């Protein structure tokens, strides 16, 4: 498929009964946003939450599509960055909606990365017990992961994402053209989540990424559209089976128990992005799987190379935000909601594309393993 032929968006359906919805993926979708959103409108207005960076770069384009359609836009622009996912700004957003008389049949649009999507979705779930919610994700991470599946949250003093709800959007519009302004580092962080879908259950996708990963990172139109579509299809299938993570959805957390510990040690600060932590966290999950004899070491190293080739850090000793401490990392893993008596469930793998839930990893053995990994730079 040529870039020039990418006019019709790719459609991926998330099957959740009467809460099913479409993810539309394609170039220049912002210009068509009002046409895609109109079927959900019962009033001639939309509410939009965005961040200062995204609004400065892409706000005019989104505004233009609504004003052309005769719709008014009421926007709330929040500061960019993880600290926006706060109880305080959530409350401010709800007050803003109430001040403007928002009702359940109004449409609230999240226009930004995972931070804006998570906060806005949570606000939508609460406003008068639930208003219509649409995601227009603008980071690669948000297009392939956070905008799909209905997890919404803000952070608490006690930790990340501790206050939230499952609340599905009515529609996701992933315009791959907006990624052109995304800094390289943020692109790579999103790419880690793309590799994740291959590592979970799709070896053919790993082979495809080995060949086309550079094109995805360079945003070659057909390559980025394919990578986003495969990722969304994969996530949609898993979410359709287990919306609220009673079982199989946990595989989407491959690399995340290690990754969250790394983020916690960094105070969730800007030195280490979520996707960067997940990238190295996945390498740790593969290498720990090999250490337990679950998969060949050569397979784990192939996965590590895929991470490293994209410019992400495979080795813990070289990860930004370090140096890390194995005892502190294990302490953070002990805070996992599912940790019990020195054991924690981990998503491990029997091979590339064969992730599974390993229910009881021994944290003292994990600490020895991390100590060894810290020597690798
Ligand atoms: P983000 O929303 O902070 O965006 C990263 C940065 O990119 C921000 O500074 C933002 O202003 C900027 N940006 C966004 N779009 C841009 C564009 N097109 N051009 C230029 N700059 C742009 O971070 P993120 O990586 O998108 O999301 C991380 C958040 O997502 C975390 O809070 C994480 O917990 C959450 N998350 C949620 C889920 C879920 O299922 N709900 C899944 C994964 C991650
Ligand atoms: N990002 C993990 C999930 O959505 O379940």
Description:
- The protein is an alpha/beta fold.
- The protein has two domains: 10-180, Rossmann fold (3-Layer(aba) Sandwich), CATH 3.40.50; 184-375, Up-down Bundle (Dehydroquinate synthase-like, alpha domain), CATH 1.20.1090.
- It has 13 helices and eleven strands.
- It has helices at 33-37, 52-68, 87-99, 114-126, 140-146, 184-201, 203-217, 221-241, 256-265, 274-291, 297-309, 326-334, 363-373, and strands spanning 10-14, 21-26, 45-51, 72-78, 107-112, 132-137, 151-156, 159-166, 171-175, 343-349, 355-362.
- α5 packs parallel to α6, α6 runs parallel beside α10 (274-291) and α9 crosses α10.
- Mean pLDDT is 95; it is low at 1-6.
- It binds nicotinamide-adenine-dinucleotide (NAD) and glycine.
- Glycine binds next to loops.
């Amino acid at each position: 498929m040529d870039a020039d032929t990418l006019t019709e968006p790719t459609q991926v359906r998330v099957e959740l009964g009467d809460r099913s919805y479409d993810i539309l993926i394609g170039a220049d979708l912002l210009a068509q946003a009002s046409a895609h959103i109109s079927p959900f409108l019962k009033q001639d207005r939309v509410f939009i939450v965005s961040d200062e960076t995204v609004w400065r770069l892409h706000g005019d384009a989104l505004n233009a599509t609504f004003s052309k359609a005769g719709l008014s836009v009421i926007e709330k622009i929040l500061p960019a960055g993880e600290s926006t996912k706060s109880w305080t700004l959530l409350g401010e957003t709800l007050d803003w909606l109430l001040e403007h008389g928002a009702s359940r049949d109004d449409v609230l649009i999240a226009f930004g990365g995972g931070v804006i999507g998570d906060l806005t979705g949570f606000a939508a779930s609460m406003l008068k017990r639930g208003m219509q919610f649409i995601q227009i994700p603008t980071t690669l991470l948000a297009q392939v992961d956070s905008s799909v599946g209905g997890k919404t949250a803000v952070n608490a003093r006690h930790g990340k994402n501790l206050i939230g709800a499952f609340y599905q959007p009515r529609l996701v519009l992933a315009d791959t053209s907006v990624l052109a302004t995304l800094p390289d580092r943020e692109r790579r962080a999103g790419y880690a989540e793309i590799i994740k879908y291959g590592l979970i259950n799709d070896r053919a996708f790993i082979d495809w990424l080995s060949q086309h990963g550079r094109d995805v990172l360079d945003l070659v139109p057909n390559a980025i559209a394919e990578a986003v579509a495969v990722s969304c299809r994969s996530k949609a299938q898993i979410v359709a089976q287990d919306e609220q993570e009673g079982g199989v959805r946990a595989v989407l957390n491959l690399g995340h128990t290690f990754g969250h510990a790394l983020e916690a040690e960094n105070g969730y600060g800007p030195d280490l992005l979520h996707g960067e932590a997940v990238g190295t966290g996945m390498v740790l999950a593969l290498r720990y799987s090999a250490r337990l004899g679950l998969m060949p070491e050569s397979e784990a190293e192939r996965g590590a190379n895929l991470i490293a080739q994209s410019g992400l850090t495979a080795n813990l000793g070289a990860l930004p935000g370090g140096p890390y401490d194995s005892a502190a990392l294990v302490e953070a893993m002990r805070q996992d909601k599912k940790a019990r008596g020195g054991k924690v469930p981990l998503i491990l793998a029997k091979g590339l594309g064969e992730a599974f839930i390993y229910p009881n990893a021994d944290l003292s053995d994990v600490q020895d393993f991390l100590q060894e990994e810290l020597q690798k730079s």
